[in-house]
Design a protein that fits this description.
By secondary structure, the chain is an alpha+beta fold. The protein has one domain. Helix content is about 20%, strand content about 10%. It is built from four helices and three strands; from the N terminus they run H-H-E-E-E-H-H. Strand 2 and strand 3 form a beta hairpin. The longest helix is centred in the N-terminal third of the chain and has 10 residues. It is elongated.
């Protein structure tokens, strides 16, 4: 079923048409640590794209590859950017909508109690 699902869907990876077009007109230029594959058009190198390994979520693209995709840097990230420093954290995708998302104290999805009101709020009343 997995192979046939990508004939018509795009949200969990490249569709069959995108894969064929990428292989025919694109040149693979690299892969990131998340398994995403980056391409540039054979005839127009300014056209660049990514095929995600998994769901299509642009927050899963590391900063260096994001700069390359947008044309901020011309050369590949490993050639034109310095290596990651010890104090820099590994990039994370957007966690909104997942169990790992931030939930402030008192929210329905988090444990804890909502902080008490401070009394500085006055409800609006129409006149």
């Amino acid at each position: 079923m997995g192979m046939f699902k990508n004939l018509f869907t795009w949200w969990e990876g490249a569709s069959l048409g995108t894969t064929i077009t990428s292989r025919r007109n694109g040149e693979e230029v690299g892969r990131d640590e998340a398994g995403n594959i980056y391409f540039r058009h054979r005839k127009d190198p300014a056209r660049r794209w990514v095929i995600y390994d998994g769901s299509n979520d642009s927050s899963r693209v590391p900063p260096g590859w994001n700069a390359w995709l947008r044309g901020t840097i011309d050369d590949l990230p490993e050639k034109s950017l310095p290596s990651r420093r010890n104090f820099e954290l590994t990039p994370e995708p957007n966690l909104t909508g997942t169990m790992a998302a931030y939930r402030p104290g008192g929210s329905l999805a988090a444990k804890g109690v909502r902080p008490a009101s401070t009394g500085d709020y006055e409800a609006w009343k129409p006149e």
